[in-house]
Structure formats: C-alpha cells, structure tokens
Design brief:
With 125 residues, the protein is of the alpha+beta class. It folds into two domains: 32 residues; 85 residues, Sandwich (Immunoglobulin-like). Helices cover 22% and strands 50% of the residues. The chain is built from one helix and six strands; from the N terminus they run H-E-E-E-E-E-E. The strands form two sheets. A three-stranded antiparallel β-sheet has the order 1-2-5, with no helix packed on it. The radius of gyration is 24 Å and the shape is elongated. The mean pLDDT is 92.
C-alpha cells in the first residue's frame, strides 16, 4: 500500500504538533513553582456623569495559586489625614488573573487626594 503526499504531510504535521505539545508540557512541569497567591492592587480614578469620587480597582494575582474572598481596604487621604474609607471583596482571584471592582467615596473629589490601598486578607480554596 503506497501513501500519497497529502497523507505524509498530515502525518508529519501531526507528529510535529504532538512533539511540540510534549515539549511544552515538559518545560511547564520542570519550571513549575508552587508559589502562594501574589496579589497586587492598582487604583485608577474614574469619571462618571454625576461626577462622583469613584476609583477602579484591579486585583492582579501573579502567583501560581488561587485566592478566595480577597478583602481590600482603600483609604482616601487629604493632606495626610484620613477623609473616607471603603472596603471591597473579590470572591475569587485565580492564578495569573486580573479582576476589577469599583469603589465610591462619600467625600467629594478634591485636588491633592491620595489613596492608601491595603489587602486585609484572603482564603486559599
């Protein structure tokens, strides 16, 4: 039984894909580090139609494990003193992911306001 060129091309491409997949999985297995969740929070001011004092939070997990119920406290400061405080909870932060939330402060937006962001805690599922 003689195979035509198309069969050989399909066979070769399939073999290359399988070898590439085995190589990729091998590299991932060797370089895997079982690190805990590595959580980082970025806060950016947002503008809405009512001109409220709103900030968008990005929770980034660059670790290799998932975190649950991540509680973040955001303190609004004016001239070094606390003006307002907000808290939010991210239900799930999978490994190597980015989650978003928004917080609104009662205090009006003014020049010179600063945020202090702190992760209060999380659970491991």
């Amino acid at each position: 039984m003689n195979k035509n060129k198309l069969e050989w091309v399909v066979f070769g491409a399939s073999a290359l894909l399988i070898l590439a997949l085995i190589g990729y999985l091998g590299v991932k297995a060797v370089s895997y580090k079982d690190t805990p969740p590595d959580l980082r929070v970025k806060a950016q001011p947002e503008q809405d139609k009512l001109n409220r004092n709103i900030y968008r939070l990005e929770l980034i997990n660059v670790g290799e494990q998932t975190a649950e119920n991540v509680t973040v406290e955001i303190t609004l400061q004016q001239n070094g003193r606390e003006v307002d405080k907000a808290e939010t909870t991210f239900p799930l932060a999978p490994k190597e992911s980015k989650q978003e939330a928004w917080v609104t402060f009662r205090a009006e937006r003014q020049e010179g306001q600063k945020l202090k962001v702190q992760i209060l805690g999380y659970n491991k599922p």
